[in-house]
Write a structure and sequence with these properties.
Strands 1-2 form a two-stranded antiparallel sheet. Helix 12 packs antiparallel against helix 14 and helix 18 packs across helix 20. It is built from 22 helices and two strands. Helix content is 69%, strand content 1%. This is AbgT family transporter.
């Protein structure tokens, strides 16, 4: 198509792709941001900018220069600690050890396939969207398993295969932050949020936990499954029409007997693990139970809540190990070690990102810029009367727009959390609410970003059924999901706020 004949939508997509491709890699971006913080600290410190510390009445805080002798000593002396101390680093790597075994033995893939293939035909759309949303517990496995499976199932049922692919892709990506279970996403974002909250109130941050959004994300599964199903059957599928392609119908491969056996025993091992975990929490004198308050307080404010990372790791590792032993994908301890090693190797980019991101976050906090910006930002928003729901909507829209250009949820939140969490806390909104608003916006525009990591893979899957499928066609197919998910999920969050329901265990709406 000639450039002059392109419509506004296509030109916009082209512009997004050009701008996004010119952005530095997230690793480089954090290095640049860290350097800019150093320059700003040297430029702003002589101006004498100061604010009263929100958590310490009468204590004035000034911007600290990190390019003087004392600052340079800090930069070189803290570099290793900034890396090791980057909030999500350790907890994400520990969590992925367990999830990685469950994924690499084939347990997650078999579970997703078995669930989708066991659903009656009339509920297949619901099942695909639901399976996609739940697949986020295994990080990116859903991107590889479900979209091509969805296309195959729809084709076998005489429906348009691209509608099946779109339904699965929407669930996997646009619903990434919704789940009945806690996942690596909760761990990664939660640690960044806790670190950002400590800028204003370390005591408050101390009692936060990574399950801070669990009630809301669990309820979101049902809402997003309904929205995804409705959009597929009422908007996307009618628009695609009947499938006229030449692709031959393939026979769907169900689970083998050994896979079924593996799933059964993995389920048994998970049940045993959950029972043992309950015994560590529920009895009155249980070792992971708290000692103060009523029964609910003793569970919410307990060693159990601060032990969620190793518990999640174990509850993924044991079923993965059992499944691997049954299916022979694990034959001995060397296989387990190899699978864990492969998982850590796949985290290489995250580890490198953690180094530069760790420097940026540490410098930002050390210079007191986060605290000063939080106080001034809150005062400005108050002066223009931008608070409450309008403020939340603006934050969601800003995040959704940025997400089109920077796809990494952890990279964006590492940049945004030190700025927005303190501002929202100064306005009376909890870090837990700010994180949840971020998650709503971050997930819903994944499927319309041509820079999303798996976008090219989804196009490759789609081209099997439509040779002309390109970036613009796929985005136009996925745009209704993005819009309805964003609007529906935002309305749900607003209603949740109006009813004053906690977002999770010890996860209040207001600070």
């Amino acid at each position: 198509m000639a450039k002059g004949n392109k419509g506004f939508f296509q030109r916009s997509l082209d512009g997004i792709e050009v701008v996004g491709n010119k952005l530095p890699h997230p690793v480089t971006l954090f290095a640049i941001l860290a350097f800019l913080v150093l320059l700003l600290s040297a430029a702003l410190q002589p101006l004498g900018i100061s604010v009263e510390h929100p958590g310490e009445e009468g204590t004035m805080v000034e911007i600290k220069n990190l390019l003087n002798a004392e600052g340079l000593e800090y930069i070189f002396g803290s570099m290793t600690d900034n890396f090791i101390g980057f909030a999500p680093l350790g907890v994400v790597l520990v969590t992925m050890l367990g999830i990685g075994v469950a994924e690499r033995t084939g347990l997650i893939s078999a579970l997703l396939r078995g669930f989708v293939l066991s659903i009656p035909n009339r509920f297949i759309t619901v099942g695909l969207v639901l399976a996609g949303i739940m697949s986020s517990v295994a990080s990116d496995a859903g991107y590889v398993v479900l979209p091509p499976l969805g296309a195959l199932i729809f084709a076998a049922l005489g429906r348009h295969p691209l509608a099946g692919l779109a339904a699965a892709f929407a669930g996997v990506s646009a619903g990434f932050s919704a789940n009945f279970l806690l996942s690596g996403t909760d761990v990664m974002l939660g640690e960044l949020t806790i670190a950002a909250a400590s800028i204003i109130d370390p005591a408050y941050a101390e009692q936060m936990n990574i399950a801070m959004n669990w009630f809301f994300i669990s309820a979101s599964v049902l809402v997003l499954t309904f929205i995804g199903t409705w959009v597929t059957e009422r908007v996307v599928e009618p628009r695609l029409g009947s499938y006229q392609g030449e692709e031959k119908e393939e026979e769907l491969e169900g689970l083998t007997s050994i896979e079924r056996k593996g799933l059964i025993w993995a389920g048994v091992s998970l049940a045993v693990g959950l029972i043992l975990t309950a015994l560590l929490i529920l009895p009155p004198d249980a070792p992971l139970r708290g000692t103060e308050g009523n029964t609910m307080d003793q569970i919410i404010q307990s060693p159990f809540m601060s032990s969620l990372v190793p518990i999640i790791t174990i509850l993924f590792f044991i079923p993965g190990l059992v499944y691997g032993l049954i299916t022979k994908s694990i034959r001995n301890d060397k296989d387990v070690a190899a699978q864990m090693t492969e998982t850590m190797a796949s985290m290489g980019m995250f580890i490198v990102l953690a180094f530069t991101a760790g420097q940026f976050v540490a410098y930002f906090n050390e210079t007191n810029m986060g605290l000063v910006l939080g106080v001034y930002g809150a005062e400005f928003l108050n002066s223009v009367n931008l608070t409450g729901i309008p403020l939340l909507l603006l934050f969601i829209l800003i995040t959704a727009f940025i997400n089109i250009f920077i796809g990494s949820a952890s990279a964006k939140w590492a940049m945004m959390a030190p700025v927005f969490v303190p501002i929202m806390m100064q306005l009376g909104y909890s870090p837990e609410l700010t994180q949840m608003a971020y998650r709503v916006a971050d997930s819903t525009t994944n499927i319309i970003s041509p820079l999303m990591t798996y976008f090219a893979i989804i196009i490759a899957f789609a081209q099997k059924y439509d040779k002309k499928m390109g970036i613009g066609t796929l985005i136009s197919t996925m745009l209704p999901y993005s819009i309805y998910f964003l609007v529906g999920w935002t309305i749900m969050l607003i209603v949740w706020m109006l009813f004053g329901i906690p977002l999770g265990p010890n996860g209040p709406l207001h600070y």
